[in-house]
Amino acid sequence: RHHAPPARPPQPSPGPGTPPPPPRPAWNTNRNLVVTHPLLALLESCASFPRFLQLHALLTVSGLAAGRFPASRLLAFCALSTPPRVDHAAAILARAPAPGPNAYMLATMMRAFLRARLPRRALALFRRVVRQALPADARTLVFALKAAAAAEHGPSSAGGEGVHCVALKWGFVGRSVLVGNALVHFYADHGSLARARRVFDEMSERDVVSWTTMVDGYARRGLADDAWRVFCRMVVAGGQQPNEVTLVAALSAIGQMGLLALGRRVHRYVAEGGLGGSISLANALIDMFRKFGCKSSAREVFDGMAVKDVYSWTTMVNVYAKCGHLESAAQLFEDMPRRNAVSWSCMIAAYSQANQPEEAVRLFKKMIEENVEPINATLVSVLPACAQLGCLDLGRWIYDNYIVSGKVVLTVNLGNAFIDMYAKCGDLDAASRLFAEMGERNVVSWNSMVMAHAVHGQSEQVLHLFEQLKGTGIVPDEITFLGLLSACSHSGLVSEGRRYFKEMKMGYQIEPKAEHYACMIDLLGKSGLLEEALEVAKGMPMEAGEAGWGALLNACRVHGNVEIGECAADKLVKLDPSDSGIYVLMCQIYASKSKWDQVKMLRMLMRDRGVKKNPGCSSIEVDGKCHEFLAADVLHVHSEDIYAALKNIYIHLKLEGYVPLT
Which interval of the chain is the signal sequence (predicted)? Predict the structure, then answer.
C-alpha cells in the first residue's frame, strides 16, 4: 500500500521586517523529473533530423512538449543543427507555453537566424523583444550585436548603436562582461576605436577577452603603439595572463612597430610558458620574424612545431622569398604536404617580384594543370609577369576565363594590374576600355592609364586624363606627375612640363625626386636647351644619377654637343665604368663631328677596360609562347628560316631604293 508522505514541519512565520521568499517559477518545479524522462534523454542524444521529428511527435502526444524546459530543448536542437532548421524552430517558438517564450528561447532563436545567415530576421526578433518587453538576458544583446554587424554593409554602426542604447536602458553596460566584450568587439570591428575604448574603460570587470579585443582592434587598424600600451597595462595592472590570441595580436603590433627586441622577448615568454604548441601562435611568430627578415629565427620556430598547417608552410616560404633565397623557397614549396591557392600565389609573387617572370608564368600554368583555382592574389601576381614578357595572349585568356566568367571578382587592384598588363603589351584600347568600365578607381588606376599613354607618346590623352583626375577629387601623387613629365618629354611640351613641375611642388607639396628631375633634363635636352638642362642637373638637391646624366648625354648625341656630352659622360663613368652605353653614345657624338681620333681612343679604352657592348634583345609572342632574340643570334631552332626571311626583306628594300643611315 502507498503510504502518505510525512507532514512538513511548520514553517516560522516571517517577521514584520523579513522580505517574503522569491516565488519559484511554476515551469521549473518538475524540471528534474522532466530531464530524467526517457524521451528527453533520447532527444539529448539525437543525431538526425528525421529522428528528431519522431521524438517531437512523441513528446507532443505525451504532453511533455507543453513544458517550458522540453520546448526549449526542442528549439535548441533545431537552432544548433547543421543546417539550422529555422522554420521548425520558429514554429516551436510560436507555440511556447504560457506565459510565452523565456529569454533563453528568444536568444536561441536569434542564434538560429544568425547561423542561417538571416541577420535581419534576428534583428526583427530583437525589436519584438524590445517592443513587447519580452524576457531578455545578456545573450540576447550579444546576438543582437552580431546580427547588426552582419546586416550592415560598410563601416556604418547605426544598428549596433541602437543595441547599445537598449543595453544602457536595461542596465547591462558596465555590469555584464559578456555584453561589454560584445560592444567593444563591435565598435573595434567597425573602426570606431574611440567608442570601443570608452566602453572598455567603463567596464567594472574585465576578462582576458576584453583586453584581447582591445589589443587586436588597435593592431588591426595600424595603431601599434596603442595596442602595445594596452597589452602592457593588461599584464602589469590588469592582473590578466594573456592567452594565445592576445599574444598573436601583440606580435602583430610588434611587427608594425619594428621592434625586434620586443618580439624576441615575447618569443621567450611563449617558449618558457609552454605555449609553443599553439599553431596560430607559432605562425604569428614566423610571420613577425618574416617582417624583420630574420630567416634563421623563423626557421627555428618552424622546425620546432610539432604540427604544421598549410599557413605555416606558406609563411615560411614567404620568409625565404622576402630574404631573397628563392631556391630555398622553391624547395620548401615543393616539400609542402598540401598546397592551397594562397601557397601558389605566394610563390608566383616571389618569382614576379624577383624579376623572374618566366618562372612566375611557368608556375601559374602548373597551378592550372593541377586544377587549383586561382584567387585574386594569384592574378595580381602573375599579370605583372605577363606584362614583363609581353604575354598578351595569356593575359587575355586570364581575363576571359576568370573575370568574364565571374570566377574571380574584379577588384580595384586586380583591375589596375590588368590595365598595366594591357598597356605594356601594347593593347591600349583594351586598357582604356577596362578603365572606363571600372566602377571604382583609385589613384593607381589613373596612374596606370597616364603612364600607358605617356609611354606610347600620346601626350594629349595624358593631359586630358590629368584634368579628369583633378575633377574626381582624387589627389595625384608623385607617379602621376612622373607620367605627366614623361609625356611632355616625349612630345617636346616644354612650357607644359615646366608648369606641371612647378604645380607639383607649389600646388600639391610633392617634393620632386631624381626621376622627376631626369624627366625635366630629358625634356629640356631633347628641345635643344642643353645649357638649361645642365643647370638643372647640377642644381638638383640630390645626385642626378644615371637617369639624369644619361638623359643629358643622349640629348647631346641628338644635338651634337661635344662639350656638355663630355661632362655628362665623365659623371656617368664615375657612377658605372662598365656601362657600354656611355662609350657608344660618346663615339656617336664624336663621329657626328668627324672626330675620329677620339672615336678610336674610346674604342681602345673600352677594350683595355674590358667593356663589351651589350647585345640588343627583342622578344615576340607567337601562339602564347614568348621567343627571345639577341643581336646576331643563331641559337633559335628556326634561325636559318629567320635569316632567310630577313635577307629577302633586305633585297626588297634595296630594290625600292632604301639606303641605310650609317
Answer: none
